[in-house]
UniProtKB/TrEMBL annotation, chains A, B:
Compartments, record wording: Cell membrane
Domain Casparian strip membrane protein, first and last residues per copy: 7-142
Subunit structure comment from the entry: Homodimer and heterodimers.
Transmembrane segments: 12-31, 51-70, 82-103, 132-152
Family per record: Belongs to the Casparian strip membrane proteins (CASP) family.
Membrane-related topology note: Multi-pass membrane protein
One Pfam family from the record: CASP_dom
GO CC list: plasma membrane
Protein known as: CASP-like protein
Domain of life: Eukaryota
Major place of residence: membrane
Amino acid sequence: MMDSPKRIPIFVLRLIALGAAVTAAILMFSAHDTAHVFNMTFEAKYTNSPTFKYFLIINAVASVYSLLVLCCPTNTSMARFLLVMDLIILLLLDSAISSNVAIGQVGRNGNSHAGWLPICNQVPKFCKQTTAAVIGGFVASLSYLFIVLCSFHNEVNLLPPKD
Amino acid sequence: MMDSPKRIPIFVLRLIALGAAVTAAILMFSAHDTAHVFNMTFEAKYTNSPTFKYFLIINAVASVYSLLVLCCPTNTSMARFLLVMDLIILLLLDSAISSNVAIGQVGRNGNSHAGWLPICNQVPKFCKQTTAAVIGGFVASLSYLFIVLCSFHNEVNLLPPKD
């Protein structure tokens, strides 16, 4: 069975990941701003883009998964399964952050070649809050990277050396 | 030392990853189309967006890395280092694909909330080629996912069982 001291860093990392993913999901869900341009009202919220929806879903999934792993008792036989699951969550978080950074970059700077104007000067509150959400997602992602590396290290180093 | 039969699937996966990443990089680099709108000429190429440039760089890095690992002799002591490097390449590819899918989705469908018009109907050749590049990147990414899983499996299962 895995030694408890070896589990402590992973437990702490899972707690950080849970906090960061929950924060990211709440920030994205509640991000909201309104702009008035030429007598028209423009409302910015997460439902405006599939990329924001994807980010919210992935962070919600990561939150539920982190909570389940923290609350449910796990044994050594599950360690390899959890490592694969952690890797999948890491990839999903990585993907959600990257797609949001790409859209956020267009929102902030626009793209003159495509004729896409920047919108962050019109809805600064929304942009700031989604940026904070992406930072939260990044912290969760980084925690999962360390969880995967720690789990791999534990899984290999708990066994007798090869030579 | 790692048994040769255990190395064959990883060798094949690295070959697939190399081919897919090189193809993706070439397709993105050579993607080009021109549209004429209101007497103005619009030229679509990878330099138009930092996301396309990022995709090209990451696939070039993945290609060089795959080539180096395939050509240079590796031993068991390097297996864990390679596993971490493979994981980093997988995360970079995942990130490059996701950001390009997000931008591609806006290019194809636009975003009425942000006032971003779709551009793929004006530069269809460019959109098709970048889509093909993203599929190439996805194949490379999938290969790296299996490389990481196989390497982890080999690394753990070559050692005596715990119980």
